[in-house]
Amino acid sequence: MISHLRTEWLKIKNYRAFILISIFFILGIFLTNYIVERVFREVVVNADAGVLIGQFNPYDFDHVWETVSYVSGYLLILPALLLLIITTNEFTFKTSRQNIIDGWTRKEFIEVKLLMALIFAVLSTLIVLLSGFLFGSLSDTPFSTKGMMHVFYFFNKAFMYNVLALFISVWIRKTGFAIGIYFIYTGAENIISQLLDALSVKWRNDEKMDLGRLGEYLPMNASDGLLSFPDNPLKSMAKNSFPTDLHFVEISFSVFYLLLFIMLTRFLFLKRDL
Amino acid sequence: MKILQLTDLTKSYGKIKALDKVSFDVPEGTIFGILGPNGSGKTTLLSIVLDVLRSDGGSFKLFEEEPNAFHRKRIGSLLETPNFYHYLSARQNLEIAAEIKGRGKEDIETVLKQVNLFDRRNSPFSTFSLGMKQRLAIASALLGNPDVLLLDEPTNGLDPVGISEIRMLILDLASKGKTIIMASHLLDEVEKVCTHAVILKFGKQITSGPVSEILSNDDLVEVSSNDLDRTLSVLNQFEGLRKINKEGELLVLDFPANKADLSAINAFCFQNGVVLSHLQFRRKSLETRFLELTH
Question: Is A10 within 8 Å of B99 when comparing Cβ atoms?
Fold first, then answer.
Protein backbone atom coordinates (compact mmCIF):
# COMPACT_ATOMS: atom_id res chain seq x y z
CA MET A 1 0.00 0.00 0.00
CA ILE A 2 2.94 2.38 0.58
CA SER A 3 3.83 2.11 -3.12
CA HIS A 4 0.19 2.77 -4.03
CA LEU A 5 0.07 5.86 -1.87
CA ARG A 6 3.38 7.02 -3.32
CA THR A 7 1.84 6.65 -6.79
CA GLU A 8 -1.19 8.74 -5.75
CA TRP A 9 1.18 11.37 -4.37
CA LEU A 10 3.09 11.45 -7.69
CA LYS A 11 -0.25 12.01 -9.43
CA ILE A 12 -1.32 15.00 -7.35
CA LYS A 13 1.78 16.71 -6.00
CA ASN A 14 2.26 18.82 -9.14
CA TYR A 15 -1.45 19.29 -9.84
CA ARG A 16 -2.37 22.96 -9.57
CA ALA A 17 -5.98 22.31 -8.50
CA PHE A 18 -4.68 20.18 -5.61
CA ILE A 19 -2.29 22.88 -4.44
CA LEU A 20 -4.85 25.71 -4.77
CA ILE A 21 -7.77 23.88 -3.14
CA SER A 22 -5.53 22.71 -0.28
CA ILE A 23 -4.38 26.29 0.37
CA PHE A 24 -7.97 27.60 0.20
CA PHE A 25 -9.11 24.89 2.58
CA ILE A 26 -6.37 25.35 5.18
CA LEU A 27 -6.54 29.16 5.11
CA GLY A 28 -10.34 28.91 4.95
CA ILE A 29 -10.56 26.99 8.21
CA PHE A 30 -8.45 29.50 10.12
CA LEU A 31 -10.08 32.53 8.48
CA THR A 32 -13.68 31.36 8.91
CA ASN A 33 -13.12 30.57 12.58
CA TYR A 34 -11.33 33.88 13.02
CA ILE A 35 -14.29 35.74 11.47
CA VAL A 36 -16.84 33.91 13.66
CA GLU A 37 -14.71 34.64 16.71
CA ARG A 38 -14.47 38.37 15.83
CA VAL A 39 -18.19 38.58 15.06
CA PHE A 40 -18.97 37.07 18.46
CA ARG A 41 -16.65 39.36 20.34
CA GLU A 42 -17.37 42.57 18.48
CA VAL A 43 -20.97 42.24 17.32
CA VAL A 44 -23.09 39.66 19.17
CA VAL A 45 -21.88 40.47 22.67
CA ASN A 46 -22.42 44.21 22.07
CA ALA A 47 -25.84 43.80 20.47
CA ASP A 48 -29.16 43.34 22.31
CA ALA A 49 -28.65 39.59 22.34
CA GLY A 50 -25.51 40.22 24.31
CA VAL A 51 -27.63 40.61 27.40
CA LEU A 52 -28.68 37.01 27.08
CA ILE A 53 -25.43 35.64 25.84
CA GLY A 54 -23.51 37.37 28.54
CA GLN A 55 -20.00 36.11 28.91
CA PHE A 56 -20.51 33.09 26.63
CA ASN A 57 -17.45 32.61 24.40
CA PRO A 58 -17.72 29.80 21.81
CA TYR A 59 -13.93 29.74 21.52
CA ASP A 60 -13.01 29.17 25.15
CA PHE A 61 -11.52 25.74 25.72
CA ASP A 62 -14.78 24.33 27.04
CA HIS A 63 -16.53 25.09 23.74
CA VAL A 64 -13.75 25.45 21.21
CA TRP A 65 -13.71 21.84 19.92
CA GLU A 66 -17.44 21.92 19.26
CA THR A 67 -17.36 25.36 17.66
CA VAL A 68 -14.32 24.78 15.47
CA SER A 69 -15.68 21.41 14.28
CA TYR A 70 -19.06 22.92 13.47
CA VAL A 71 -17.75 26.04 11.71
CA SER A 72 -15.02 24.19 9.76
CA GLY A 73 -17.54 21.56 8.68
CA TYR A 74 -18.93 24.02 6.15
CA LEU A 75 -15.61 23.93 4.27
CA LEU A 76 -15.56 20.16 3.86
CA ILE A 77 -17.06 20.54 0.41
CA LEU A 78 -13.54 21.60 -0.73
CA PRO A 79 -11.58 18.36 -0.09
CA ALA A 80 -14.60 16.41 -1.36
CA LEU A 81 -14.58 18.40 -4.61
CA LEU A 82 -10.83 17.93 -4.90
CA LEU A 83 -11.21 14.18 -4.56
CA LEU A 84 -14.02 14.24 -7.10
CA ILE A 85 -11.88 16.15 -9.62
CA ILE A 86 -8.85 13.89 -9.09
CA THR A 87 -10.97 10.76 -9.55
CA THR A 88 -12.98 11.91 -12.57
CA ASN A 89 -9.68 13.05 -14.15
CA GLU A 90 -8.63 9.40 -14.12
CA PHE A 91 -11.63 8.58 -16.29
CA THR A 92 -11.20 11.63 -18.54
CA PHE A 93 -7.52 10.88 -19.16
CA LYS A 94 -8.28 7.13 -19.26
CA THR A 95 -5.48 6.69 -16.74
CA SER A 96 -7.83 4.46 -14.75
CA ARG A 97 -7.38 2.04 -17.66
CA GLN A 98 -3.66 2.66 -17.91
CA ASN A 99 -3.04 1.99 -14.20
CA ILE A 100 -4.72 -1.41 -14.62
CA ILE A 101 -2.87 -2.10 -17.88
CA ASP A 102 0.41 -1.26 -16.12
CA GLY A 103 -0.29 -3.86 -13.46
CA TRP A 104 -2.64 -2.67 -10.72
CA THR A 105 -5.73 -4.72 -10.07
CA ARG A 106 -9.07 -2.93 -10.17
CA LYS A 107 -9.34 -3.63 -6.45
CA GLU A 108 -6.02 -1.90 -5.79
CA PHE A 109 -7.09 1.10 -7.87
CA ILE A 110 -10.37 1.69 -6.05
CA GLU A 111 -9.06 0.82 -2.60
CA VAL A 112 -6.21 3.32 -2.80
CA LYS A 113 -8.80 5.95 -3.82
CA LEU A 114 -10.91 5.03 -0.77
CA LEU A 115 -7.76 5.28 1.30
CA MET A 116 -7.21 8.75 -0.14
CA ALA A 117 -10.74 9.68 0.97
CA LEU A 118 -9.77 8.53 4.46
CA ILE A 119 -6.42 10.36 4.40
CA PHE A 120 -8.06 13.59 3.21
CA ALA A 121 -10.49 13.25 6.13
CA VAL A 122 -7.67 12.58 8.63
CA LEU A 123 -5.65 15.56 7.36
CA SER A 124 -8.72 17.82 7.51
CA THR A 125 -9.28 16.67 11.08
CA LEU A 126 -5.67 17.41 12.03
CA ILE A 127 -6.08 20.97 10.73
CA VAL A 128 -9.24 21.33 12.82
CA LEU A 129 -7.41 20.01 15.89
CA LEU A 130 -4.66 22.53 15.31
CA SER A 131 -7.05 25.43 14.84
CA GLY A 132 -9.04 24.36 17.91
CA PHE A 133 -5.87 24.38 19.95
CA LEU A 134 -4.86 27.77 18.53
CA PHE A 135 -8.22 29.51 19.11
CA GLY A 136 -8.59 27.89 22.51
CA SER A 137 -5.18 29.17 23.53
CA LEU A 138 -6.08 32.67 22.36
CA SER A 139 -9.14 32.63 24.63
CA ASP A 140 -6.97 32.67 27.77
CA THR A 141 -8.90 29.80 29.31
CA PRO A 142 -7.36 26.61 30.74
CA PHE A 143 -6.94 23.70 28.32
CA SER A 144 -9.83 21.29 28.28
CA THR A 145 -10.84 18.29 26.20
CA LYS A 146 -14.52 18.86 26.86
CA GLY A 147 -16.55 18.37 23.68
CA MET A 148 -13.59 16.85 21.85
CA MET A 149 -15.96 14.15 20.59
CA HIS A 150 -17.07 16.80 18.10
CA VAL A 151 -13.67 16.61 16.40
CA PHE A 152 -14.43 12.96 15.77
CA TYR A 153 -17.85 13.95 14.40
CA PHE A 154 -16.00 16.36 12.11
CA PHE A 155 -13.81 13.50 10.91
CA ASN A 156 -16.92 11.42 10.34
CA LYS A 157 -18.49 14.19 8.26
CA ALA A 158 -15.27 14.71 6.27
CA PHE A 159 -15.03 11.00 5.48
CA MET A 160 -18.72 10.84 4.50
CA TYR A 161 -18.42 13.85 2.16
CA ASN A 162 -15.30 12.35 0.56
CA VAL A 163 -16.78 8.89 0.13
CA LEU A 164 -19.93 10.35 -1.41
CA ALA A 165 -17.77 12.41 -3.80
CA LEU A 166 -15.84 9.26 -4.70
CA PHE A 167 -19.03 7.32 -5.30
CA ILE A 168 -20.42 10.03 -7.61
CA SER A 169 -17.08 10.21 -9.47
CA VAL A 170 -16.98 6.47 -10.11
CA TRP A 171 -20.64 6.47 -11.08
CA ILE A 172 -20.78 9.58 -13.32
CA ARG A 173 -17.12 9.72 -14.52
CA LYS A 174 -17.43 13.13 -16.26
CA THR A 175 -15.97 15.93 -14.11
CA GLY A 176 -18.47 18.72 -14.79
CA PHE A 177 -21.46 16.46 -14.65
CA ALA A 178 -20.26 14.82 -11.43
CA ILE A 179 -19.75 18.21 -9.73
CA GLY A 180 -23.27 19.18 -10.84
CA ILE A 181 -24.77 15.97 -9.44
CA TYR A 182 -22.86 16.44 -6.17
CA PHE A 183 -24.34 19.92 -5.66
CA ILE A 184 -27.81 18.94 -6.81
CA TYR A 185 -27.74 15.97 -4.44
CA THR A 186 -26.55 18.12 -1.55
CA GLY A 187 -29.29 20.69 -2.24
CA ALA A 188 -31.99 18.07 -2.69
CA GLU A 189 -31.01 16.25 0.49
CA ASN A 190 -31.14 19.49 2.47
CA ILE A 191 -34.62 20.33 1.18
CA ILE A 192 -35.92 16.84 1.96
CA SER A 193 -34.20 17.01 5.33
CA GLN A 194 -35.97 20.32 6.16
CA LEU A 195 -39.31 18.79 5.21
CA LEU A 196 -38.64 15.70 7.34
CA ASP A 197 -37.56 17.94 10.23
CA ALA A 198 -40.80 19.91 9.94
CA LEU A 199 -42.69 16.63 9.97
CA SER A 200 -40.89 15.42 13.08
CA VAL A 201 -41.62 18.73 14.87
CA LYS A 202 -45.29 18.30 13.94
CA TRP A 203 -45.33 14.70 15.17
CA ARG A 204 -43.67 15.64 18.41
CA ASN A 205 -46.09 18.48 19.13
CA ASP A 206 -49.32 16.98 17.77
CA GLU A 207 -48.91 13.24 18.22
CA LYS A 208 -46.43 13.40 21.10
CA MET A 209 -44.25 11.04 19.05
CA ASP A 210 -40.55 11.88 19.38
CA LEU A 211 -38.50 10.01 16.76
CA GLY A 212 -35.69 12.52 16.81
CA ARG A 213 -35.06 14.76 13.80
CA LEU A 214 -35.96 12.59 10.82
CA GLY A 215 -34.12 14.91 8.43
CA GLU A 216 -30.87 13.97 10.14
CA TYR A 217 -31.20 10.36 9.12
CA LEU A 218 -30.26 11.05 5.49
CA PRO A 219 -26.71 10.33 4.29
CA MET A 220 -25.10 13.78 4.40
CA ASN A 221 -27.34 15.19 7.12
CA ALA A 222 -26.63 12.24 9.41
CA SER A 223 -23.02 13.37 9.64
CA ASP A 224 -23.91 17.09 9.45
CA GLY A 225 -26.41 16.78 12.29
CA LEU A 226 -23.83 15.48 14.75
CA LEU A 227 -22.03 18.80 14.56
CA SER A 228 -23.62 21.77 16.21
CA PHE A 229 -22.90 25.20 17.55
CA PRO A 230 -22.35 25.00 21.32
CA ASP A 231 -25.39 25.38 23.53
CA ASN A 232 -25.87 28.95 24.64
CA PRO A 233 -28.70 30.87 26.29
CA LEU A 234 -30.17 31.93 22.92
CA LYS A 235 -30.16 28.44 21.48
CA SER A 236 -31.52 26.82 24.62
CA MET A 237 -34.62 29.00 24.43
CA ALA A 238 -35.56 27.73 20.98
CA LYS A 239 -34.62 24.16 21.74
CA ASN A 240 -37.66 23.09 23.72
CA SER A 241 -39.95 22.81 20.72
CA PHE A 242 -37.57 20.56 18.74
CA PRO A 243 -37.53 16.78 18.89
CA THR A 244 -34.69 15.30 20.87
CA ASP A 245 -31.37 14.98 19.05
CA LEU A 246 -30.89 11.23 19.17
CA HIS A 247 -27.12 11.21 18.74
CA PHE A 248 -26.76 7.48 18.92
CA VAL A 249 -29.28 6.95 16.12
CA GLU A 250 -27.55 9.61 14.00
CA ILE A 251 -24.14 8.00 14.54
CA SER A 252 -25.55 4.60 13.60
CA PHE A 253 -27.09 6.00 10.41
CA SER A 254 -23.90 7.83 9.62
CA VAL A 255 -21.73 4.71 9.95
CA PHE A 256 -24.30 2.71 7.98
CA TYR A 257 -24.22 5.22 5.07
CA LEU A 258 -20.42 5.32 5.13
CA LEU A 259 -20.18 1.55 4.79
CA LEU A 260 -22.95 1.51 2.20
CA PHE A 261 -21.28 4.07 -0.06
CA ILE A 262 -17.85 2.46 0.35
CA MET A 263 -19.34 -0.85 -0.75
CA LEU A 264 -21.28 0.71 -3.63
CA THR A 265 -18.19 2.54 -4.88
CA ARG A 266 -16.13 -0.65 -4.80
CA PHE A 267 -18.87 -2.69 -6.43
CA LEU A 268 -19.42 -0.17 -9.22
CA PHE A 269 -15.74 0.11 -10.09
CA LEU A 270 -15.05 -3.61 -9.96
CA LYS A 271 -18.09 -4.50 -12.03
CA ARG A 272 -18.06 -2.03 -14.91
CA ASP A 273 -15.90 -1.97 -18.03
CA LEU A 274 -13.17 0.65 -17.85
CA MET B 1 6.29 -21.48 -24.05
CA LYS B 2 3.01 -19.94 -25.10
CA ILE B 3 2.83 -16.26 -24.13
CA LEU B 4 -0.89 -15.93 -24.75
CA GLN B 5 -3.54 -18.59 -25.31
CA LEU B 6 -7.11 -17.64 -26.21
CA THR B 7 -9.93 -20.16 -26.04
CA ASP B 8 -13.31 -19.22 -27.54
CA LEU B 9 -13.07 -15.63 -26.32
CA THR B 10 -16.40 -13.86 -26.76
CA LYS B 11 -17.58 -10.31 -26.05
CA SER B 12 -20.78 -8.49 -27.04
CA TYR B 13 -21.77 -4.85 -26.90
CA GLY B 14 -25.53 -5.18 -26.76
CA LYS B 15 -26.54 -6.96 -29.96
CA ILE B 16 -23.18 -6.49 -31.62
CA LYS B 17 -20.73 -9.34 -31.26
CA ALA B 18 -17.33 -7.70 -30.95
CA LEU B 19 -15.59 -11.05 -30.51
CA ASP B 20 -17.07 -14.38 -31.51
CA LYS B 21 -15.24 -17.43 -30.16
CA VAL B 22 -11.74 -16.33 -31.00
CA SER B 23 -9.01 -18.90 -30.28
CA PHE B 24 -5.30 -18.75 -31.04
CA ASP B 25 -1.91 -19.09 -29.37
CA VAL B 26 1.01 -16.69 -29.39
CA PRO B 27 4.31 -18.61 -29.20
CA GLU B 28 7.26 -17.08 -27.37
CA GLY B 29 9.70 -15.05 -29.48
CA THR B 30 7.29 -14.28 -32.30
CA ILE B 31 6.09 -10.96 -33.67
CA PHE B 32 2.41 -11.70 -33.68
CA GLY B 33 0.11 -9.50 -35.74
CA ILE B 34 -3.58 -9.13 -34.99
CA LEU B 35 -4.92 -7.96 -38.29
CA GLY B 36 -8.35 -6.75 -39.29
CA PRO B 37 -10.29 -3.81 -40.64
CA ASN B 38 -11.67 -1.10 -38.34
CA GLY B 39 -14.22 -2.53 -35.92
CA SER B 40 -13.04 -6.11 -36.30
CA GLY B 41 -12.46 -6.54 -32.55
CA LYS B 42 -8.69 -6.08 -32.30
CA THR B 43 -8.76 -3.53 -29.49
CA THR B 44 -11.58 -5.37 -27.71
CA LEU B 45 -9.45 -8.51 -27.72
CA LEU B 46 -6.39 -6.75 -26.29
CA SER B 47 -8.57 -4.90 -23.74
CA ILE B 48 -9.84 -8.20 -22.39
CA VAL B 49 -6.31 -9.58 -22.17
CA LEU B 50 -5.32 -6.46 -20.19
CA ASP B 51 -8.37 -6.68 -17.86
CA VAL B 52 -9.83 -3.39 -19.04
CA LEU B 53 -12.89 -5.16 -20.46
CA ARG B 54 -14.67 -8.23 -19.18
CA SER B 55 -15.29 -11.06 -21.66
CA ASP B 56 -18.73 -12.65 -21.90
CA GLY B 57 -17.39 -16.10 -22.57
CA GLY B 58 -14.28 -18.17 -23.21
CA SER B 59 -10.97 -17.76 -21.42
CA PHE B 60 -7.34 -16.87 -21.90
CA LYS B 61 -4.02 -17.65 -20.30
CA LEU B 62 -0.89 -15.55 -19.96
CA PHE B 63 2.49 -17.29 -19.69
CA GLU B 64 0.49 -20.56 -19.53
CA GLU B 65 -1.11 -19.49 -16.24
CA GLU B 66 -4.41 -17.98 -15.16
CA PRO B 67 -3.99 -14.25 -15.86
CA ASN B 68 -3.24 -11.91 -12.95
CA ALA B 69 -1.91 -8.41 -12.27
CA PHE B 70 1.64 -9.66 -11.89
CA HIS B 71 1.55 -10.88 -15.52
CA ARG B 72 0.49 -7.42 -16.67
CA LYS B 73 3.50 -5.93 -14.89
CA ARG B 74 5.69 -8.18 -17.08
CA ILE B 75 4.04 -6.95 -20.28
CA GLY B 76 4.72 -3.55 -21.81
CA SER B 77 1.41 -2.39 -23.22
CA LEU B 78 0.03 0.34 -25.40
CA LEU B 79 -3.74 0.15 -25.76
CA GLU B 80 -5.66 2.25 -28.28
CA THR B 81 -4.74 5.80 -27.24
CA PRO B 82 -1.85 7.03 -25.10
CA ASN B 83 -3.32 7.54 -21.60
CA PHE B 84 -1.39 10.00 -19.44
CA TYR B 85 -1.97 12.75 -16.88
CA HIS B 86 -2.26 15.87 -19.04
CA TYR B 87 -0.83 18.25 -16.45
CA LEU B 88 2.30 16.18 -15.80
CA SER B 89 5.49 16.10 -17.86
CA ALA B 90 6.66 13.10 -19.88
CA ARG B 91 9.09 12.24 -17.13
CA GLN B 92 6.59 12.56 -14.28
CA ASN B 93 4.12 10.40 -16.19
CA LEU B 94 6.73 7.69 -16.66
CA GLU B 95 7.59 7.86 -12.94
CA ILE B 96 3.98 6.92 -12.19
CA ALA B 97 4.03 4.05 -14.70
CA ALA B 98 7.36 2.81 -13.26
CA GLU B 99 5.99 2.95 -9.70
CA ILE B 100 2.92 0.92 -10.68
CA LYS B 101 4.99 -1.65 -12.56
CA GLY B 102 7.27 -1.89 -9.54
CA ARG B 103 10.31 -0.87 -11.59
CA GLY B 104 13.00 1.61 -10.67
CA LYS B 105 13.26 5.05 -12.20
CA GLU B 106 16.66 4.36 -13.76
CA ASP B 107 15.03 3.19 -16.99
CA ILE B 108 13.16 6.41 -17.66
CA GLU B 109 15.97 8.29 -19.38
CA THR B 110 16.85 5.28 -21.53
CA VAL B 111 13.34 4.75 -22.85
CA LEU B 112 12.83 8.48 -23.47
CA LYS B 113 16.01 8.45 -25.57
CA GLN B 114 14.83 5.32 -27.39
CA VAL B 115 11.76 7.13 -28.68
CA ASN B 116 13.50 10.51 -29.21
CA LEU B 117 11.60 12.35 -26.49
CA PHE B 118 14.49 13.01 -24.12
CA ASP B 119 14.70 16.70 -25.05
CA ARG B 120 11.02 17.16 -24.26
CA ARG B 121 11.08 15.16 -21.04
CA ASN B 122 10.05 18.12 -18.90
CA SER B 123 7.25 19.40 -21.15
CA PRO B 124 3.67 18.77 -20.02
CA PHE B 125 1.93 15.93 -21.83
CA SER B 126 -0.82 18.37 -22.90
CA THR B 127 1.67 20.21 -25.14
CA PHE B 128 2.60 17.06 -27.10
CA SER B 129 1.59 16.38 -30.69
CA LEU B 130 -0.26 13.14 -31.50
CA GLY B 131 2.97 11.51 -32.68
CA MET B 132 4.82 12.53 -29.52
CA LYS B 133 2.02 11.19 -27.33
CA GLN B 134 2.24 7.91 -29.22
CA ARG B 135 6.01 7.78 -28.75
CA LEU B 136 5.62 8.46 -25.03
CA ALA B 137 3.16 5.57 -24.84
CA ILE B 138 5.72 3.32 -26.51
CA ALA B 139 8.38 4.58 -24.08
CA SER B 140 6.07 3.66 -21.21
CA ALA B 141 5.58 0.18 -22.66
CA LEU B 142 9.37 -0.23 -22.84
CA LEU B 143 9.86 0.63 -19.13
CA GLY B 144 11.51 -2.14 -17.18
CA ASN B 145 12.67 -3.93 -20.32
CA PRO B 146 9.68 -6.33 -20.47
CA ASP B 147 9.93 -9.66 -22.28
CA VAL B 148 6.54 -9.19 -23.92
CA LEU B 149 5.20 -6.10 -25.66
CA LEU B 150 1.56 -5.69 -26.51
CA LEU B 151 1.05 -2.83 -28.92
CA ASP B 152 -2.25 -1.64 -30.33
CA GLU B 153 -1.73 0.30 -33.58
CA PRO B 154 1.78 1.38 -32.49
CA THR B 155 2.42 3.59 -35.49
CA ASN B 156 -0.86 5.49 -35.16
CA GLY B 157 -0.31 9.21 -35.70
CA LEU B 158 3.36 8.88 -36.54
CA ASP B 159 4.99 10.47 -39.59
CA PRO B 160 6.81 8.25 -42.12
CA VAL B 161 10.14 8.67 -40.31
CA GLY B 162 8.46 7.83 -37.00
CA ILE B 163 6.80 4.77 -38.51
CA SER B 164 10.10 3.53 -39.84
CA GLU B 165 11.80 4.18 -36.47
CA ILE B 166 9.17 2.21 -34.60
CA ARG B 167 9.39 -0.61 -37.13
CA MET B 168 13.16 -0.78 -36.63
CA LEU B 169 12.67 -0.67 -32.86
CA ILE B 170 10.20 -3.57 -33.00
CA LEU B 171 12.51 -5.65 -35.19
CA ASP B 172 15.43 -4.83 -32.89
CA LEU B 173 13.46 -5.89 -29.80
CA ALA B 174 12.35 -9.08 -31.54
CA SER B 175 15.93 -9.89 -32.42
CA LYS B 176 16.66 -9.78 -28.68
CA GLY B 177 14.15 -12.57 -28.16
CA LYS B 178 11.19 -10.49 -27.05
CA THR B 179 7.66 -11.47 -27.97
CA ILE B 180 5.67 -8.73 -29.62
CA ILE B 181 1.92 -8.83 -30.03
CA MET B 182 0.77 -6.10 -32.36
CA ALA B 183 -2.68 -5.10 -33.56
CA SER B 184 -2.89 -3.26 -36.83
CA HIS B 185 -5.06 -2.54 -39.82
CA LEU B 186 -1.97 -1.68 -41.86
CA LEU B 187 -1.06 -4.68 -43.99
CA ASP B 188 2.19 -3.23 -45.01
CA GLU B 189 3.23 -2.89 -41.39
CA VAL B 190 2.29 -6.46 -40.58
CA GLU B 191 3.94 -7.87 -43.70
CA LYS B 192 7.15 -6.02 -42.91
CA VAL B 193 7.52 -7.03 -39.29
CA CYS B 194 5.26 -9.89 -38.23
CA THR B 195 6.18 -13.56 -38.19
CA HIS B 196 2.72 -14.79 -37.23
CA ALA B 197 -0.75 -13.28 -37.53
CA VAL B 198 -4.42 -13.75 -36.94
CA ILE B 199 -7.03 -12.08 -39.14
CA LEU B 200 -10.30 -10.91 -37.61
CA LYS B 201 -13.46 -9.67 -39.29
CA PHE B 202 -16.53 -8.49 -37.37
CA GLY B 203 -15.22 -10.30 -34.33
CA LYS B 204 -14.82 -13.61 -36.16
CA GLN B 205 -11.49 -15.27 -36.63
CA ILE B 206 -10.86 -15.71 -40.35
CA THR B 207 -7.48 -17.39 -40.19
CA SER B 208 -4.29 -17.56 -38.13
CA GLY B 209 -0.75 -18.92 -38.41
CA PRO B 210 2.65 -17.94 -39.78
CA VAL B 211 2.45 -14.84 -42.00
CA SER B 212 4.10 -16.69 -44.88
CA GLU B 213 1.16 -19.09 -44.91
CA ILE B 214 -1.68 -16.65 -44.32
CA LEU B 215 -0.59 -13.90 -46.59
CA SER B 216 1.04 -16.17 -49.14
CA ASN B 217 1.10 -14.51 -52.52
CA ASP B 218 -0.86 -17.12 -54.44
CA ASP B 219 -0.06 -17.57 -58.11
CA LEU B 220 -2.71 -16.14 -60.38
CA VAL B 221 -2.72 -16.85 -64.08
CA GLU B 222 -4.80 -14.99 -66.66
CA VAL B 223 -5.96 -16.92 -69.71
CA SER B 224 -8.22 -16.11 -72.60
CA SER B 225 -9.45 -17.77 -75.79
CA ASN B 226 -12.20 -17.30 -78.35
CA ASP B 227 -14.38 -19.86 -76.50
CA LEU B 228 -14.27 -19.05 -72.79
CA ASP B 229 -16.98 -21.51 -71.78
CA ARG B 230 -15.13 -24.42 -73.33
CA THR B 231 -11.83 -23.23 -71.87
CA LEU B 232 -13.48 -23.08 -68.47
CA SER B 233 -14.76 -26.65 -68.66
CA VAL B 234 -11.37 -27.90 -69.87
CA LEU B 235 -9.40 -26.08 -67.20
CA ASN B 236 -11.71 -27.39 -64.50
CA GLN B 237 -10.00 -30.73 -65.14
CA PHE B 238 -6.54 -29.25 -64.62
CA GLU B 239 -4.80 -30.66 -61.57
CA GLY B 240 -3.58 -28.41 -58.76
CA LEU B 241 -5.89 -25.57 -59.67
CA ARG B 242 -7.69 -24.01 -56.67
CA LYS B 243 -10.39 -22.08 -58.44
CA ILE B 244 -11.25 -20.12 -61.55
CA ASN B 245 -12.74 -16.62 -61.62
CA LYS B 246 -14.21 -15.02 -64.72
CA GLU B 247 -13.22 -11.40 -65.16
CA GLY B 248 -14.72 -10.07 -68.39
CA GLU B 249 -12.90 -11.71 -71.30
CA LEU B 250 -10.36 -13.27 -68.95
CA LEU B 251 -10.31 -16.35 -66.81
CA VAL B 252 -8.19 -15.97 -63.69
CA LEU B 253 -6.75 -19.24 -62.41
CA ASP B 254 -5.83 -19.41 -58.74
CA PHE B 255 -2.92 -21.70 -57.80
CA PRO B 256 -1.19 -22.20 -54.47
CA ALA B 257 2.05 -20.20 -54.21
CA ASN B 258 4.75 -21.27 -56.69
CA LYS B 259 2.56 -23.98 -58.20
CA ALA B 260 1.55 -22.37 -61.48
CA ASP B 261 3.35 -23.66 -64.57
CA LEU B 262 2.43 -21.65 -67.62
CA SER B 263 3.76 -24.12 -70.19
CA ALA B 264 1.88 -27.00 -68.53
CA ILE B 265 -1.35 -25.01 -68.70
CA ASN B 266 -0.74 -24.15 -72.33
CA ALA B 267 0.03 -27.74 -73.25
CA PHE B 268 -3.00 -29.08 -71.33
CA CYS B 269 -5.37 -26.68 -73.09
CA PHE B 270 -3.90 -27.43 -76.50
CA GLN B 271 -4.19 -31.18 -75.93
CA ASN B 272 -7.86 -30.68 -75.10
CA GLY B 273 -8.54 -28.69 -78.22
CA VAL B 274 -8.39 -25.18 -76.77
CA VAL B 275 -6.05 -22.62 -78.26
CA LEU B 276 -5.24 -19.87 -75.82
CA SER B 277 -5.06 -16.31 -77.10
CA HIS B 278 -3.73 -14.92 -73.82
CA LEU B 279 -1.64 -16.49 -71.08
CA GLN B 280 -0.02 -14.39 -68.36
CA PHE B 281 1.18 -14.51 -64.78
CA ARG B 282 -0.50 -12.16 -62.27
CA ARG B 283 1.01 -11.83 -58.78
CA LYS B 284 -1.69 -11.50 -56.20
CA SER B 285 -1.07 -8.45 -54.05
CA LEU B 286 -1.17 -8.68 -50.27
CA GLU B 287 -4.00 -6.23 -50.35
CA THR B 288 -6.07 -8.48 -52.58
CA ARG B 289 -5.46 -11.37 -50.25
CA PHE B 290 -6.54 -9.29 -47.25
CA LEU B 291 -9.65 -7.97 -48.97
CA GLU B 292 -10.48 -11.49 -50.04
CA LEU B 293 -10.21 -12.74 -46.48
CA THR B 294 -12.08 -9.90 -44.88
CA HIS B 295 -14.83 -9.19 -47.39
Answer: yes
User: Do the chains contact at A7 and B99, CB–CB below 8 Å?
Assistant: yes
Sequence-ordered alpha helix ranges (H) in chain A? 2-12, 16-38, 50-53, 64-73, 77-92, 95-101, 106-138, 149-172, 175-202, 219-224, 233-239, 247-271
Same domain? B22 vs B153: yes
pLDDT in tens, chain B (295 residues): 899 999 999 999 988 999 999 999 999 999 999 988 888 899 999 999 998 898 999 999 999 999 999 999 999 999 888 899 999 999 999 999 999 998 878 899 999 998 889 999 999 999 998 889 999 999 999 998 999 999 998 888 888 888 888 888 888 888 888 999 999 887 777 777 888 989 888 889 888 888 877 766 677 889 999 988 999 999 988 888 888 888 888 998 888 877 888 999 999 999 999 999 999 887 555 566 677 776 6
Task: Test A101 with B79 for CB contact under 8 angstroms.
Answer: yes
Distance in Å, alpha carbon of B41 to nearest chain A alpha carbon: 16
Range of the domain at B230: 219-294
Residues B202 and B231 in one domain: no
Give the integer Cα–Cα distance in Å for B244 and B255.
9
Residues B134 and B55 reside in one and the same domain: yes
**Chain A contact for B88, CB < 8 A?**
yes
If asked whether residues B150 and B257 sit together in one domain, one would say no
Partner-chain residue, chosen from B52, B54, B69, that has the shortest CB–CB distance to A103: B69
C-alpha to C-alpha distance for B7 and B24, rounded to whole angstroms: 7
Q: Respond yes or no on whether ipTM tops 0.90.
A: no
Domain ranges of chain A: 2-271
Please report the residues numbered 14 through 43 in chain B whose beta carbons come closer than 8 angstroms to any beta carbon of chain A. none
Altogether, the residues listed in chain B come to a count of 295
Q: Does B95 touch chain A (CB under 8 A)?
A: yes
Question: Which of B50, B88, B101 is closest, CB to CB, to A14?
Answer: B88
Q: Identity (one letter) of the amino acid at A167?
A: F
